[in-house]
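Worked example

This section walks through a single chain of length 708. The input is the sequence exactly as stored; nothing has been trimmed or padded.
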Amino acid sequence: MRPLQIPAFIRRVLTLRDSVGVPLIVLSRQDDNVVAVNNILRQASHPVHCTRVGQINDLADALQAQPPELVILFDENRNSDVAAVSAQLAKLSPSPPLLLVQAQVTEQSIADAMECGARDVVSLTHKNRFQAVVTRELQAHRLQVALSRVLNSADQYKRELKTLMEGSAEAIADVQEGIIVAANPTWTELFGYSSEEDMISTPVMDICDNTDKPMLRGALVACLRGKWDDTPLQISTLRADKTELRVEIKLERVTIDGEPAVRVIVPGDQNLTDNTAELLEKAVFQDPSTGFYHRHFFVEKMEERMGTALTGGIRALAYIRPDNFARVHDDIGMLATEILLAKLADLLKAFMKPADIYGRFGGTMFIVLLERGNILDAESWADQLRLAVESKVFEVDNQSTSLTCTVGLCEAEPDNLNIADLLTQVEEACRTGRDAGGNRVQLTQDTSETQIIRASDAIWVPRLRTALMQNRLRLLHQPITSLDNDLAGIYDTRVQMLDEDDNVILASEFIPAAQRANMIKNVDRWVIGASFSFCAAKQPTLVFIRLSDDSVTDASLPGWLKARLEVTRISPTQICFQVSEDVAAQHLKQTKMIAETLRSAGFLFAIDHMGNGRDPEQLLNHVPMDYMKIDGSLMQALHRTKEIQESVRELADLANSRGIKTIAERVEDANTIATLWQLGIPFIQGNYNKMDGVVLEDTQTSRGLESQ
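Given that input, the structure is written out below as tokens.
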């Protein structure tokens, strides 16, 4: 019988550490113990590198700094330490073996130690056994590491084989360092190439439209770092004949020849897997040219959506119509106009967010129900759409033409469920914009006035005062997610109010009234007090709390905060106070003073909604801060608009040069996240599905009245 042959790569695993030193952690309060271990093992030809850890509390940092191949624990009258150390080692994969060193070794002591997670018990007086046990455990651990690698490789190959076998209808390309290294026939056919060889060694960016290149580049980087989930991206691509093709792609991190790569997948025809109801909806209720809902079904969908409660932000209705379409009709002919409208619809789809509902109201009229952070976000979305239509040259049957469009915009307020009235208002706004020359975004008069007065102060002020007295405010914590590391427990704090029947009232309903009635400082202090209690109970990493202009100019705030700290005993580093760019610009001197005061007390400071003011660099130069939040209105068309990308990049560069971390606000889709990766923005917050998961904390503070 032939002897068992160990594969070469496993032999390399078994011998590599010996050539560079075997990392060990020795848990002992005595340096002499480390010297003794080092001498004994080197006598057995183990070139060990020992790291002494004096306290178990320091073990986690040592494990992270240098994962060991073996951990040796000296039993210095600390009988409970074995289980605690073993629990920490179990978090590593594979877990390194643990040996216990005692002055006297007995069968009972070995059994007790092994029950707690140790592999064996040794003593310094029996050097030969010490050496033999260490040799055995090191070999076993290295074999375990090698086996894990073999199994992981096998699993990887199985997944790849399954993908190739089951995905024959999918277009697949593998990308390494931005270059296509493999492509299947479906991929080459999809993009109009005659063979796989025509695509190999070409940059993957060559298939991508210029507007989407930053987004795709950022997504590839995120995927390589293991920071991308299976959320698909919508991108515009170019086929070999330079015609446009809008596709949905998925990204997977794979390994090719031992090197990381990204697999780009264009799913096959989804119609084959649609259920009967979905097929019926597409056939009966959706316009075949654009894929948007027909008028009547759009209204049904809108009524259904308006009947559901918002967790935050606003809904708006946008009415979109091309300008001077009769001229375009003359340019390209009657038969080509429907193709042109389909291409216009494809452009509109590039601006679609997951929660949006799109409809075609017949002819050249399109309508969209939006969900955005505020009406300014909706207006920014509409203006970027207008600019995209204006700048695009539409190719139809070897003819080219250009378009402009007018967008009517109306906020769909929660208490206004009269769909017919909303449709009439937004259509009138669009007509007003067209009569004024077109190529513009026109808000309805009611929507413009809503920006100033949200409701009757005569109603809201008494309700707010009662809510404060009865402690009926609640905190809403929106997670802030890190794109480039696994930092967790960071939240942005919002406030809501419960009415007399415990129904939720959004801040946008009562905060404007509180500001006009000079009650906003009371709300601020309630939020601060409740947030301190939240930090004491939940121990988050960091909580952002917004300060109004009244609080910025309130000289008594620092003293009040000091008293609250003494009561709650939280660390001030858990709190980051934030002030909006508008407030900071209007009260620059006071903002600088409050920032300096708060930071000297140990708190962090931030400016949010940055990017819409006239001179953000002035704020960065004058106001000391730890974080800068980039306004969500800039996220609405970030992945498609180079000018906005440059503005965001400039803001981030200004902040980074000053050691200030940047956070992107109101991020709502994967395309935007991919672009932010490319721009180097490390943190996001918003309504993007898996990245945020807004958490409602039923926060009731017994000191709610004291905070006023």
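What to look for: The radius of gyration is 31 Å.
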